[in-house]
Amino acid sequence: MESNVTAAVPRGRPREFDAQEALAAALRVFWLRGYEGASLTELTEAMGITRPSLYACYGNKESLFRKALDLYEQEKLAYMGAALNAPTAREVAERLLHGALEMQRSTSDPRGCLGVISSLACGAEAESIKAEVIARRASSEAALIQRFERARDEGDLPDHVDPAGLARYLGAVIQGMLVQASSGVSCKDLSKLVDTAMMVWPSR
Amino acid sequence: MESNVTAAVPRGRPREFDAQEALAAALRVFWLRGYEGASLTELTEAMGITRPSLYACYGNKESLFRKALDLYEQEKLAYMGAALNAPTAREVAERLLHGALEMQRSTSDPRGCLGVISSLACGAEAESIKAEVIARRASSEAALIQRFERARDEGDLPDHVDPAGLARYLGAVIQGMLVQASSGVSCKDLSKLVDTAMMVWPSR
DNA sequence: TGCTTTCCATACCGATCGATATAGTGAGTT
DNA sequence: AACTCACTATATCGATCGGTATGGAAAGCA
Fold first, then answer.
1. Tens digits of per-residue pLDDT, B2-26?
2. Helix-strand-coil percent breakdown of chain B, rounded to 5?
3. Cα distance from N-terminal residue to C-terminal residue, chain A
4. Cβ-proximal residues to A126 (8 Å cutoff; 6+ apart), any chain
5. Is A168 close to B195, i.e. CB distance below 8 A?
6. How many CB atoms are closer than 10 A to CB A105?
7. Is the pLDDT of residue A69 over 90?
8. Which nucleotides of chain C have an atom under 7 angstroms from any protein CB?
9. Which of A137, A22, A119 is nearest to A68 (CA)?
10. How many angstroms separate the CA atoms of B77 and B141, rounded?
11. Hey, are the CB atoms on A165 and B124 less than 8 Å from each other?
């Protein structure tokens, strides 16, 4: 079997649109509307392509969403991986909170979090999408739990805090903040929220 | 104009179903699916009535949702009003967190929060629903801010915490916890989350 | 130039969406 | 018993959903 990662010799008429650019446009629509709320009409209009082009290039709506989710994690959630490398648990939390906050400052991106938006409300048919998003989040949470377990072992956390509980707690603060961002709470207020969260962060 | 709160003399054939009972069934569907994810077919099947009966009794889907939202706030969010009357800010937080946690223990109700679910993902047509839910939540948040301002005035909070920031922070913890509940996190883990949140709660 | 291949545009598919028109039925009033 | 009115059941409305069939246009290769 030959490699089909890059077609060796592109035969036929080449694509007239930039697949990555169009995917970014689709991501914005999903981000704004959620998986089910994003109709093919709105998607294709935002992407500047027709329906047959969309299906030829991305498969169907569901696989388009998964590709958009990949792009989202890769571009917008890059700060997460970096945050886990911070030297102390407190700095991990600070980087995660500020990373999420900074993302909300963008004027070109929608508010909130694509994952949260797409994992909650869904009709009966979108259960597999919901499951996918939840599975991806689970791996992030597992990494955070491990990081805090390491912090505990390094004496970086007070003895009475449970690493797993702390990880879920921090995840809740971030997700709750993103819910509020979706609801239109201003960045200034979100910033005060983050400041409060850091103020109460447990220290030895 | 006569009072139409209660029809003085009900003429014609009386309704064969219990409007309140059917509304409770509709609430469960909205809670599980969100506003847009709940189809009329699924609603009427759960309610045990036909479409014309639904429209005659509740108006349309949107007004049915608002009535369900009323019922939800009245029945499921009753603990919120009570929590605000707790003597200290810490106890207010504790009652709110535990109230939300206890709600997730129900085996008959869906997980998560109807408000959060319905305020996030939505197509273009459900914007008015989203606005409605957000407006209702705003009044709750305002009450919480006032409560914490009172706490500050009573010397019930450390001087360095901002009441509004603390209120938004607590709201985020609760909403984030409900997001996780919707995602299937177990009550045991949610309980650890709440314990952690109470552990870090600022004390004088 | 001729051929292949994939592109784009239009129109359309069955299914489902929220919402109603129509007709028949039945309980309460007179 | 006759009448009235709102109920129920069925069938259907136009619009939109995700997804495609069809046909002409255009780029690359021989």
1. 333 333 456 667 787 888 999 999 9
2. 70, 0, 30
3. 58
4. A35, A36, B37
5. no
6. 10
7. yes
8. 4-11, 16-22, 25-29
9. A22
10. 13
11. no
pLDDT in tens, A29-56: 999 999 999 999 999 999 999 999 999 9
**Domains of chain A by start residue, with CATH:** 19-68 (1.10.10.60), 77-199 (1.10.357.10)
Q: Give the number of other Cβ atoms within 10 Å of residue B84's Cβ.
A: 17
- What letter would DSSP give residue A85? T
A126, A174, A179: residue with CB nearest B116: A179
What residues of chain B lie within 8 A of the CB of A111, using their CB? none
| Cβ burial A165-187 (10 Å sphere, 16+ → b, else e) | bbbbbbbbbbbbbbbbbbbebee
- What DSSP designation does B120 have? S
Tokens of A46: 């935002």
pLDDT bucket at A3, cuts 50 / 70 / 90: very low
Q: How far is A203 from chain B (nearest CA, A)?
A: 9
Token pair for B176: 């984030």
Q: Extract the tokens encoding B102.
A: 């206890």
- What pLDDT shows up at residue A44? 95
Percent of chain B with pLDDT over 90: 75
